[in-house]
Amino acid sequence: METLNDTLRRHGFAFKKQYGQNFITDRNLLEAIVSDAGVDGSKTVLEIGTGAGALTRALSRRAARVVSYEIDRSLQAVLAETLEGCGNVEVVFRDFAREDLPALERSLGRYLVVANLPYYVTTPIIMRFVEEGKCCDGMTVMVQEEVARRFCAQAGTADYGAVTAAIARRGSCRITRTVPRTMFTPRPNVDSAVVHMDFTRGGFPVCSDAAYRMAVRCAFLSRRKTLENNLIAMLKISRPAARALLAAADVAEGVRGETLSPAQLAVLAEQLVQAGYVKEQP
């Protein structure tokens, strides 16, 4: 029986480092990822990075519809073969980073993102959905293990950062499984993990998205400096003004930004609006 690697060789496919191509072929793992994502017959799935179509095919068996983006057109012949019979799959050979997300969402309706993301685009892709995705109900993505820890970190830990706070604002985040590097072809230099983000629960409202982003930037502007000093540097304000902001947000003097939970950052964001440092959104 021909393996996926045999199929790739038969089509003369060569892995391209610039696209971060590391494919998964283990069917049990692929089915587990689909299960982690909560895909069922009512769901539309958006996949970024079709690769050789192994995950795409697993998704097609469960989902109502799969729209999958692939940047590498040299995989077109491979995918015509590996996705044969998958009538609910549409492969789009374009760079997803250049897509008009609002227009795409209008064509998708409510959807889930499921992907084995190339490491070099992991954070930009995820942040795009976190900050701009209006119809995305959640994401289940394979990422570098250390990046996964940052996505799910707790306040005050070394892994906690701006991306953690941004994700927490939208919903819950957890690592569902770790994946050793031996599961990929070609083998990467690091282990991976599957992260599940649920945007339908666990998040919280903020008075202004812009103000929350500003609060997060102030918190993590310089991890070695206090939040007070970061506010002074970011907002170009006096020390008394920075202390007044902290007092209004019920934050003690002398704390560092990474000790504030996402909910506390939301309170700081509200004070930034009330003090006029960020304009309230209409």
Q: Given this structure, which CATH class of the largest domain is correct?
A: Alpha Beta
Q: Give the tally of β-strands.
A: 9
Low-confidence spans: none
Straight-line N-to-C gap:
61 Å
**Name of the CATH architecture of the largest domain:** 3-Layer(aba) Sandwich
- Can you say what the CATH homologous superfamily of the largest domain is? Vaccinia Virus protein VP39
Strand content: 15-25%
Fraction of residues in helix? 25-40%
Query: How many domains in all?
Result: 2
Order of helices and strands: HEHEHEHEHEHEHHEEEHHHH
In DSSP terms (H or I, runs of 4 or more residues), the helix count works out at 12
Biggest sheet, open or closed, and with what strands and sense?
Answer: 7 strands, mixed
Rg, nearest Å = 21 Å
The average pLDDT is 95
Shape category: elongated
The assigned structural class equals: alpha/beta
CATH topology of the largest domain: Rossmann fold
Strand order of the largest sheet: 4-3-2-5-6-9-7
Descriptive overview:
The protein has a seven-stranded mixed β-sheet, sandwiched between helices. A two-stranded antiparallel ribbon has the order 1-8. The longest helix has 13 residues, at 262-274. The N and C termini lie far apart (61 Å). The protein folds into two domains: 4-202, 3-Layer(aba) Sandwich (Rossmann fold); 209-274, Helicase, Ruva Protein, domain 3 (Orthogonal Bundle). With 282 residues, the protein is an alpha/beta fold. It contains twelve helices and nine strands. The protein has helices at residues 4-10, 27-37, 54-60, 76-82, 101-108, 122-132, 145-151, 162-170, 209-220, 227-235, 239-248, 262-274, and strands spanning 23-24, 44-48, 65-69, 89-92, 111-116, 136-144, 171-179, 184-185, 192-202.
